[in-house]
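Example 5.3 — Nucleotide-binding universal stress UspA family protein
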Amino acid sequence: MLQRILVPVNFTTASARALAVTRDYHPQATIRLLYVVSPSDIASATANPVINPTHAKEERAKAERAALQKLESWVRDGEEVAVEVGSAAEKISVHAELWGADLIAMGTRSRTGIQQFLHGSATEWLVRHAKQPILVVHDVELAEDQMAHLPPTS
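Solution (predicted structure tokens):
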């Protein structure tokens, strides 16, 4: 039986659906929602092209607080949240390993061609490299009973 399920989210419909499916199929598991802040998002948050170390630390803390606040709107009683900063695929893999996840459940959008080449896919990387099984939920319509498990999306 799966006891610890890591659900990386990026606040898209696809990740909301992965969370809904996880909640529906594994109601007794401990679920941890993980958001990975990209370093490039932190760097682009400032208008100053030269960032001193103190300012960078403040921007990182601000980005982490914002992510935690958004995660709180998605989490339910008994679920956990975490925020990491770095490469999404690598941080998800390391976090899953350190936390002792039995499964990583994540959503994916169907990118093809040039989009896939330019942006890559954390999901694709994890399917190839993660030590845990990966449940991939495509951005498709859910069954009516699964809709109740959806978090609010913006």
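Remark. Residues 32 and 80 are 4 Å apart (CA to CA).
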